[in-house]
Structure formats: C-alpha cells, structure tokens
Amino acid sequence: MILAGVKKSVPLLDLATLHAPLRDEIIAEITRIVDSQKFIMGEDVKQLEQLVASYTGTPYAIGCASGSDALFLALAACGVGPGDRVLTTSYSFFATAGAITRVGATPVFVDIDPVTYNIDPVLVAQALERHPGIKAIIPVHLFGACADMDPILELAKAHNCAVIEDGAQSIGAEYKGRKAQSMGEVGCISFFPSKNLGGFGDGGMVTTNDEGLARKLAALRVHGSLKKYYHEWVGVNSRLDTMQAAILKVKFRYLDSWTEARNQHASLYRQILGDSGTPIGLPVTTPYQTRHVYNQFVIRSSERDALKAWLQEHGVGTEVYYPLPLHLQPCYLDLGYHEGDLPHSEAAAKETLALPVHPAMSTDDIEYVCEVIKSYFLNPARQA
Ligand SMILES: Cc1ncc(COP(=O)(O)O)c(C=O)c1O
Questions:
Q1: Closest residue by Cα to residue 168 from 146, 149, 191
Q2: Cβ(249)–Cβ(191) under 8 Å?
Q3: Superfamily name and number for 254-378
Q4: In this structure, which long-range contacts are made by residues 274-280, counting pairs with CB atoms below 8 Å and at least 24 apart in sequence?
Q5: How many angstroms is it from 297 CA to the middle of ligand 1?
Q6: Phi, psi (rounded to 5 degrees) for 90
Q7: Predicted model pTM
Q8: Rg of the chain's alpha carbons, rounded to an integer?
Q9: Which of 88, 192, 196, 248 gets mutated to test ligand 1 (max ligand atoms within 8 A of its CB)?
Q10: How far is the CA of 364 from the centre of ligand 1 (A)?
Q11: What is the CATH number of domain 22-251?
C-alpha cells in the first residue's frame, strides 16, 4: 500500500470523527445547561455518579475535577498525609506519584512486570518488607488492562494498608470478571478528553464500596464540608462541572461500543503484525485481564525512536508513554533513586510506542499503520 505511494493520515486520536455523530445530542445538552444557568455539580453530576457507580459495580461514585484530584482525594480520604509512605509503580503518568506528594507523603517506587507493564506484586511484597508502615498502595491499570490485584489486595490486608486503584486509563476493564475501580478502598477515574470516556475538558471520579469513605470523599471535594459553611476536614475545591457531566452522560451511552471497536482494532493489529513476523513486541494480556479496554495499544521495539519518526513521516501519529520513569523524574531526585534501580520501567521507557487505537479508526487505517511498520523493517537503509 505505502510502497504504491499512498500516504494516509492516521492520527493517534481523532475526536472530531468520534464526536461527529453525537454533535446534535451534545449541543442540545450544552444548550440545556446554558439555559438553566446552573454550572456547578447538580442533578447531572448525580446522574453521572449513579451511572458510573453501577457500571463499576460500586455503591458509591463521587465526581471531582480531574483524575489527578481523584487520586489526591482518595489518599486524603484514606488518611494518608505528611510522614507517610505510599507504594506505587515507577511506570505511569506523573499524576500517580504527584498525588502522593501533594498529600505530603513520600512515594516508594516499585518496578513493573515487563510483560504487562503493571506493578509487579512480587516486588510489592519485597518493598513492604523493606519499608515497614507503608500506608497505601496505588496500582495503576495501565493502558486499559488491570494490574494483578489479588496478590496486591492480600498483601495490603496483611500489612494494613489501603489500596487505591489508579484507573484513569481503564474505565470498563475487568480483572477475573471483577470491575476495575471496585476492588480497592477507592478507585480513581479520569475524564480527560483522550480517555475512553472523555469530557470536553477536565473531570474525574472516585468510586468506593465503603459508606464512610464515600461521605468523606464527597466532603473533601467541597472543602471538607458536609453541611454548607461547616467544615469537618480541610478539603479542596474539586467539583465536577455540570456541563461536563451532561456531556459525559451522552458519551457514556457509547462507551461499550467504543470499547468493542478498540478491541477489534487490537485484534487486527495482532493478527497482521503477529503473522508478518515483524520484530516488534505486541501487547500481552494475561488470563486474569478478562477485559482490556485498550486506552492505548502499545508495541515495543529496540528501534522505537526511528520507528516513531518513520511512522510520523508516513502520516501515522504515535506517542511514547512514558519516556522517563517516575523514579528518575527531576523533581524526585532527592528520593535517591538512580538509573538501573528499576530496570524494567527504564527499559519500557526506552522501547514502548503507542499506536492509534481510537474507536473512530477504520480497518483500512489499521492495515495502513501495519504496512508502514512492516515497510520500516524492510528498509535496508534504516537508521536504527
Ligand atoms: C495513569 C493516570 N493517572 C492519573 C491521570 C490523571 O488524570 P487527569 O489528567 O484527569 O488529571 C492520568 C491521566 O493522564 C493517567 O493516565
């Protein structure tokens, strides 16, 4: 295809095409909110909370201003604060670690399983022994597939620490048939526009099975207040806008069909790239990851940067999630980590590449991306 001189544009994300069929519905919702002149929280937020609570199989869901704030609120609600330490993965978006620092605690970074890219429970066990008194563990369900939760939950129980699921990328994912965001003390969701359920701006949600935590979370997002102008805790302003909730309610109706499309794209990538013998690593799902939601389809190559440039030259958008692991970020230098400390995260940061997998893609788009990848490896003059 590409050798025949055809050049297509396949962006990493194409919200314009995704939103086009929903345009009238969404504009009607925006008009309704504008006419109501009620812009903060309200019935729309409550309805979205109910939808997400039942979707994640948790009795309580509480809207907030972002996925980053969801993590912050979860930690604060679990009583994590200055002097505490929290275990988390070294291979995630910065917000996972940033929330720990924002509550005044210190992150303890744990390496990943190099196959799933999620936190390695064996290393979690070792870290819990090495650092007595860990207050919480934040596993991240990276790229849309769940971390290995059972051993993590068991370890947390034995060490008396809370489990906060960072499910920013994983709404709808399942672990052994259990819903992401329903297994730990608190689950965290992001509605950032690029997420599987993305708003027209920032937004987030926390989920929990615990009534007491739900009450505290609901208070913490409005300055720790359960009754107006009376404050039980010092919270923050992290409310979800009415307009975002109204838009997200429309998009929620399409979420499962979009997830299905993401899974079909992933299967086609696997089929074409797997059969072609192209020397790249394809994402591996383990049997416990009973539903992957493919927020990202991440391949692996020792020639990642050159392959990325080749794809870009041929109109294919890709992204590196993430080029520098959390333990080596400049702001965490004082924690004393060095290159080589968490080798699987460091290797992944050098070799992984996210391909377009958004629901608005066509079969032709996927085939084109695969052709471009194959042509890269067939090019004898390539500069790896
Ligand atoms: C793993 C992870 N955690 C947390 C967040 C933060 O979410 P938000 O951008 O809504 O603050 C993100 C968003 O990119 C994420 O990918």
A1: 191
A2: no
A3: Aspartate Aminotransferase, domain 1 (3.90.1150.10)
A4: 276/370, 276/374, 278/373, 278/374, 278/377, 279/377, 280/307, 280/373
A5: 17
A6: -90, 5
A7: 0.97
A8: 21
A9: 192
A10: 30
A11: 3.40.640.10
E strands, the chain, are 60-64, 85-89, 106-110, 136-138, 162-166, 174-175, 178-179, 186-190, 204-208, 225-227, 230-231, 297-300, 352-355
Does residue 56 line the site of ligand 1, with CB under 6 A? Answer: no
- pLDDT at position 1 is 47
CA 140 to CA 169: how far, in whole Å?
9
Q: Is the CB of 169 under 6 A from ligand 1?
A: yes
Tell me the domain boundaries of the chain: 22-251, 254-378
Cβ distance 294 to 262 under 8 Å? yes
Distance CA 325, CA 319 (A): 15
- Residue 104 Cα to ligand 1 midpoint, Å, equals 19
Ligand 1 within 6 A of CB of 14: no
Question: Which stretches of the chain score pLDDT less than 70?
Answer: 1-5, 383-384
